[in-house]
Amino acid sequence: LRAEIAAFDVDSLAFAAMSERFLDQLKAGEAHPAMPSMMKYAGTELNKRRHELLMAAGGSEALEWDSERSRQGKTARDWLRTKANSIEGGTSEIQLNIVAKHILGLPGA
Amino acid sequence: VTLLTDDQKMLRETAAHLMAAEGSIAKQMRPLRDKGCSDGFGHDLWRQFGELGLAGMCAPEAQGGLGMGATEAALVLEEIGRNLTPSPFLTTSVAAVRALDGSAQAERWFPGIVAGETVAALAMDEGRRHAPGPHRDAGRAAGQWFRAERGQAICRPWRLGGRHSGRGRGPRGRRGEWDGLTLFAVARDSTGLGIENVALADSSKAARLTFDNVSLDGDAVIGEVDGGSGPLSRALNAGRAGAAAELVGVAAGASAMTPRLPQAAHAIWQIDRRVPGATAPRRASVRRDRDRRAAAFKAAELLDGGDAKSELMVSVAKAKAISAAALAVQEGVQMHGGIGMTDEHDIGFFMKREAVLAESFGDARFHRARVAELSGY
Questions:
Q1: I need a labelling partner for B368 at 20 to 30 A (CA). Which of A101, B65, B236, B348 fits?
Q2: Adjacency order of strands within the sheet including B205-211
């Protein structure tokens, strides 16, 4: 689990660096048209992983649903909420589709 | 791997029919959750398990059971998983029966279990992670009496909660030693036993147990004093193999729900046709469906045969079933799109159930570590 969390941190910090660069490029008008989709895809999948790890680290306590101790099951409810991240605002499949079209130069891009 | 016998196929059909007809989400899980059932399972259905002989199927025939083993239990559990049927079957009929079998305690508890009236739970996790074995509290022997000093044990998912007559069994012994463990059968109305009913994400119930100077006499011992590791290992192996089988069912149920979506002319289907990548995960989960089922049944077969490799295969089955079921439920929710996030749709229940089952009797990390340990690296 420690190794998985470390791997997540690597990806998370890399994503933060990518976000910074993207914002600067956007301001300068140099951003690639596929970038917003890349950011959305990477960010939401990362957030889902974050909450999977929070559930794993929390073990059985993270599975509690109604108790005061668990703040009405906050960990579990937050985890389930993240599953919508890769659906709302264009699903991950749609984002990959957009990225693929731009990179491959397919019609409709 | 031996193929199923005719009797086993018949059992599977009985279980499939019962769970689809009486144990469905619409008949059990959803209404029980909506009315805030404190026990987390339907007592009428549990008595039906008793009438059909399922509740005591793993108990010896001489004691009212059917003398069946892990393979048969796996067949029933797969159907329970497929329908998300709330039931104390895994902890009571599989894990507890395996621990009690052959001990003096069997006489006392089997009749209730066989009839579908008694519910048993294994008090096994003291912390948030599954790490059974040597107990933090020293069980102190004083003549014929054993005292569980102040301490806490979490009785893992399910089923000591509620108001039914149940009982819990707690492993206790000296810290750091499997050898010093003694397993006790504790009635739920024992003085000093505190039970806090805990609702879990999948609407099942767990209980947090506190032992405050609970006095138990020698009769409460399952097996031998200091010999608790035997029955405890049997219960854990049976429970782990059973949880793996139930996960196989959960994954199958989620997968079965998922490809029906295109027929509903959902927008997702458009993506599925246009983007080759979108169909790849579905293929992956179908392939994994074969592995995980094979692993679960191989583990059950080795357990039934008393094979030395059974512990290794049980951990393989549990780890494999978790990763495959996680993929199936996550893919199921994602492929349903927004509707999968609503409470009206059932697909989300599979994700919740998968999370609870994955954690109980050890998560994938625990079992991978066990595979490494048992393989000697």
A1: B348
A2: B193-199, B205-211, B151-155, B119-125, B166-172, B182-187, B221-222
> How many Cα atoms are found within 13 Å in the side-chain-facing hemisphere of B277?
10
Q: Which helix (H) or strand (E) holds B284?
A: helix B276-304
Task: Yes or no: say if B138 and B149 are a contact pair by the CB < 8 Å rule.
Answer: yes
Q: Please enumerate in sequence order all residues whose Cβ is within 8 A of that of B327, keeping only pairs 6 or more positions apart, or say none.
A: B251, B281, B284, B285, B288
- Side chain identity, residue B294: A
Q: Give how far A95 is from chain B: nearest CA, Å.
A: 11
Dig out the tokens for B208 from the structure. 């947090």
User: Which residues of A are less than 8 Å from B360 in CB distance?
Assistant: 60
Which among B201, B278, B341 has CB closest to A84? B341
Contacts of B142 (CB under 8 A, 6+ apart): none
Q: Please tell me if residue B330 touches chain A, with a CB cutoff of 8 Å.
A: yes
- A interface residues, B as partner, C-beta within 8 Å: 1, 55-56, 58-67, 73, 76, 79-80, 83-84, 86-88, 91-94, 96-97, 100
Summarize pLDDT for B219-234 with one digit per residue, the tens: 788 888 778 888 888 9
Task: Please indicate whether, in this complex, the C-beta atoms of B198 and A91 are within 8 angstroms of each other.
Answer: no
pLDDT digits (tens, 9 = 90+) for B142-191: 333 444 444 434 333 222 222 223 344 444 444 445 666 778 888 888 88
For A64, B31, B205, B301, B325, the CA distances from B28, given in Å and listed in that order, are 20, 6, 14, 31, 22
What SS3 class is residue B4? coil
Q: Chains A and B: how many Cβ contacts under 8 Å?
A: 86
B249 CB within 8 Å of a chain A CB: no
In B, which residues are within 8 Å of A109 by CB distance? Answer: none
pTM summary value? 0.84
Distance CA B261, CA B47 (A): 36
| C-alpha span between B244 and B315 (Å, rounded) | 9
CB spacing of A91 vs B277 below 8 angstroms = no
Residues of chain B with pLDDT under 50: 134-176, 261-281, 283
Q: Which of A1, A67, A87 sits opposite B198 (nearest CB)?
A: A67
Task: Give ipTM to 2 decimals.
Answer: 0.81
For testing the chain A interface, which of B341, B347, B367, B368 should be mutated: the one with the most A CBs within 10 Å?
A: B341
Q: What is the end-to-end Cα distance of chain B in Å, rounded?
A: 27
Phi, psi angles (nearest 5°) of residue B215: -100, 130
- The dihedral through the CA atoms of B88, B94, B98, B104 has a sign that is positive
